[in-house]
């Protein structure tokens, strides 16, 4: 189960909000109390023991101030520990409040005491009890819970790994391209044909090297198709996870048949899904979102993050546009309403329409990356 977005088979349940406390017993209370006490104590001891015992007792106490209380309860303890510690502390506190609640026993007391002992042990026990207090000069008061907000991104671990991936790719001058789309939008066919064309292109006198990491819940069908391009391919089967994450990508690089630092472009074909993959940074240098003519013009408005975070949008299966009555102008308007400056190309991997333009845009991004540290590279 994904610990960040919660997708996958259920494991431990996730909750919204929380309870401040839980009790094994229910009780009602309307209480007032007022007392003042102070006590100093020092204690030190060490012991080692393991025992289990059950006891039941009733006792009554009378203190110097005339207050009396009695208890009747039974509990069972199991101890197994060996430790030593010492405490030397004094504390003084006063309370000006009153309360009255009902439980299985009643007591009413205040006390001053000093004692010397040492104990540090863990035990588990269960007991049901109730008690009541009544103090003079009581006043009603309210108890308020305090909620402390902890602001930490649940994506923190993924973002840290993505930053490492991005540094690795930049240092190796590899253009990592994260490709997103709905299932069936044509990612695999698009990449297969694009890689065939790119491998014929040269940068600084040598042919471009491409590799692919492809993610699916099950099967290696897409990996088999992508290998027809001649590029090394690694398949990630996510099981029930609906997206790739930065750690999966990092692990997959060691499974490539070539040294990833020798690649020019690494394509990452993400799991077919426009929801979670849009919010998971993999450390890529370029993000592409594919929208097929068969999906309709309003898909960008239904899944805005996938298009808002894209660097390049590909309108795929353009050969089906007429048959699907795809309104290209409306699709462009919807995409640009989310990200006005985004690059958009229309491609048919089947007929080859727009494929050259698509590959040239990839090369332009690659040259921009490489020229940051190696000016003067030539494209042929």
Commentary on this structure:
- The chain has 380 residues and is an alpha/beta fold.
- The two termini are 47 Å apart.
- The chain contains eight helices and twelve strands.
- The protein is 21% helix and 27% strand.
- The chain has a domain at 161-371: Rossmann fold (3-Layer(aba) Sandwich), CATH 3.40.50.
- The strands form three sheets. It has a seven-stranded parallel β-sheet, sandwiched between helices. It has a three-stranded antiparallel β-sheet with strand order 1-2-3, with no helix packed on it. Strands 5-6 form a two-stranded antiparallel ribbon.
Shape: globular
For the largest sheet, list the strands in their spatial order: 8-7-9-4-10-11-12
| CATH architecture classification of the domain at 161-371 | 3-Layer(aba) Sandwich
**What is CATH's topology name of the domain at 161-371?**
Rossmann fold
pLDDT averaged residue by residue: 75
- In percent, how helical is the residue content? 10-25%
Supply the CATH superfamily name of the domain at 161-371.
P-loop containing nucleotide triphosphate hydrolases
Uncertain spans: 10-58, 71-132, 375-380
The end-to-end distance, rounded to whole angstroms, is 47 Å
Residue fraction in strands? 25-35%
Say how many strands there are. 12
How would you spell out the order of helices and strands? EEEHEHEEEHEHEEHHEHEH
| Rg calc | 34 Å
Q: Major beta sheet, specifics? A: 7 strands, parallel
Query: What's the total helix number?
Result: 8
